[in-house]
Please model this.
Amino acid sequence: MLNFSKCHSILITGASRGLGLEMVRQLLSTPERPKKNHRNRCRGTELQALAKSHPEVHVVTLDVTSDVSVNDAVQEVKSIVGADGLNCLINNAAINIHCDLDTVTRDVMMKTYEINTVAPLFVTKAFLPLLREAAGQGSGMGIHRSAVINVSSILGSVQLNWGEMGAPKLYAYRPSKSALNMITRSLAVDLEAEGILCVALHPGWVRTDLGGADADMSVEESISSVLPVICGLTEKDHGGFVSYNGETLPW
Ligand code: NDP
Model:
């Protein structure tokens, strides 16, 4: 059972497909779902169809790498959430370009960092006024008040990149998520006093375009674990790196 009783709005980047789209689907099937829901850059026809049949879903066009697009999205979201502000921002959009030591290029490194690392920081900065608005109206920490969830990856764990876990050679993706973890922790330091929860979240290895066909879990399995974890986040999780099953991961 998910407790969304006080979370009125969730913004998910990258909801046109994969895990972001599944979050929207499963959130819509919960009885206490947020009244103002999920938004994203979107060509996704499935998301458009969900928005058509569910007025609480608003699709917002957003390219996370473009300041113009991000600022337009902030204005649009502001007009939807109004004085309540934004309760939960899920920075989910990302890319994974496979490259090993032989094939990695400067371009791939920079493109991956731009989308996976720099964008979540600047999207968060842009939405801070709306997150602060919501934070000012609640107490404690969690998505009932104000939260930034950065969708990271266990592959960003420096400690676990060894032995079997060191097998996926992803020279751009892995460090982009390690750096995202550090950004999450830095945000946690800076936003703690304002009551804005900041967490890095690993959704499991999932069969999506990004995760590939050999992955362990379906999107349904991943998100049905991830959403209760997100709903249960409190001050004790602030600044942490959590897995889809609620375990804490090493940096
Ligand atoms: P997918 O490739 O299925 O989906 C990626 C999403 O990101 C799409 O909606 C895509 O939009 C969006 N996106 C990419 N670039 C941009 C951009 N510049 N602006 C806005 N949106 C953009 O990935 P997953 O669903 O698998 O991944 C979701 C998150 O989970 C990512 O952060 C990923 O790193 C993380 N993760 C995934 C794992 C897995 O096994 N799948 C494992 C660990 C972490 P569009 O359709 O328009 O391209």
The CA atoms of residues 8 and 151 lie 20 Å apart. Residues 106-135 form the longest helix (30 residues).
